[in-house]
Design goal:
The structure holds two protein chains of two kinds. Chain A is mainly beta. Chain A is built from no helices and eleven strands. In chain A, 0% of the residues lie in helices and 57% in strands. The chains are: A mainly beta, B mainly beta. Chains A and B meet through β4, β5 and β9 of A and β4, β5 and β10 of B.
Chain lengths: 110, 113
Amino acid sequence: RKEVEQDPGPFNVPEGATVAFNCTYSNSASQSFFWYRQDCRKEPKLLMSVYSSGNEDGRFTAQLNRASQYISLLIRDSKLSDSATYLCVSRMDSSYKLIFGSGTRLLVRP
Amino acid sequence: NAGVTQTPKFQVLKTGQSMTLQCAQDMNHNSMYWYRQDPGMGLRLIYYSASEGTSDKGEVPNGYNVSRLNKREFSLRLESAAPSQTAVSFCASSPPGQNYGYTFGSGTRLTVV
């Protein structure tokens, strides 16, 4: 079983739609979580950290449920430029190493 | 502000050839990493370095070696390239602390034929 699992998608949504991705992690010792965005043939870029109380950055909202060991990302008012692969990432308490999910692909159509 | 710089961006090797991928960061980060990404798969850690002069194996170290000669640079060497090493390799760095993510370089697309 992968340490971080994501639905690969693709999620195909119209502009303006709200879309949500979930991700599960298997190691309960994981302490920090992130969402990264990766455009086709580009490097991953940090989208946002995920805090226990949930956090929002503009149209993006991240939530963490430690009891169920899942993380979510909600994107409101989708833009064409949101089309990308979204990587769910965890980090163990005692390590600087990040564990990446395989990513969820989002396609936003006009 | 360059961030993390990797060279080369593309490389084709024949089976058995060796080469070194270079990575440098100008953000004064302590930790540096090498990941590989295979089509349809997530990033997997090859090696990492918590500080100058140190390195540790990650999830997929076989066939690779690394060198962290100073704080800025972390190189990845393929001693005898194999087709299984065809992938995109990303270098990354991070500051100390749990709440910081990585900054990635633009990647090296490596093909071994």
